Design the sequence.
């Protein structure tokens, strides 16, 4: 179809496939899948993709004009995107196969995996999890100013660490923080590479950072 518009359901699946145009999908309680959604005439700017569900996974094939997705409880998978990705889930994994642009991905309980393929500026990256591993892959010549924060609770001391192919300056707090629930310490890794044009912030609790 060549069409613009929105599709929504109060409690079922949304499937958009082989569509040219600007189409958004939302569900109050089901999986949302979008495959082969193309911008019109191949050269028009088009709109970003909006997908939301109150209780199901989100599966997006491509988003050439950027994507903003959210779910209250499910995994988010985006195979390919340009310009930007905003992804948020209250309980699930986030996987972004490849993105040429900025990224903001947040999960309250799951792993995050992102592959940045672009270089240049305007590609800030912010990844966070409240309980899971985070893996970020960037080009070797990616210009970035990096700050990684790994917090672990007392019973998990020694279980998690920051692993980096880039030479990060890592420090660990000496005292336990007792002000925010379970006692915790923080490992911080920082560094500036290839000019530091893009800000990269990665944070997790009781998980590894790669």
Sequence:
């Amino acid at each position: 179809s060549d069409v613009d518009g929105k599709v929504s359901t109060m409690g079922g699946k949304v499937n958009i496939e082989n569509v040219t145009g600007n189409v958004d999908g939302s569900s109050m309680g089901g999986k949302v899948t979008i495959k082969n959604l193309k911008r019109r005439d191949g050269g028009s700017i088009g709109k970003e993709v909006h997908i939301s569900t109150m209780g199901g996974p989100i599966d997006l094939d491509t988003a050439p004009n950027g994507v903003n997705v959210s779910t209250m409880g499910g995994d988010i998978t985006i195979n390919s995107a340009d310009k930007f990705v905003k992804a948020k889930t209250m309980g699930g994994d986030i996987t972004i196969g490849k993105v040429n642009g900025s990224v903001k991905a947040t999960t309250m309980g799951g792993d995050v995996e992102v592959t940045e393929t672009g270089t240049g500026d305007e590609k800030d990256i912010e990844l966070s999890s409240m309980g899971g591993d985070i893996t970020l892959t960037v080009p070797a010549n990616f210009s970035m100013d990096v700050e990684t924060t790994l917090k672990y609770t007392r019973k998990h001391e020694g279980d998690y660490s920051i692993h980096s192919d880039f030479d990060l300056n890592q420090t660990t707090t000496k005292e336990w923080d007792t002000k925010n629930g379970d006692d915790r310490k923080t490992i911080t890794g920082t560094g500036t590479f290839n000019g530091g044009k893009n800000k990269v912030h990665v944070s997790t609790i009781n998980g590894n950072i790669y």
In short: The mean pLDDT is 90. The chain has no helices and 16 strands. The radius of gyration is 18 Å. Residues 14 and 32 are 5 Å apart (CA to CA).
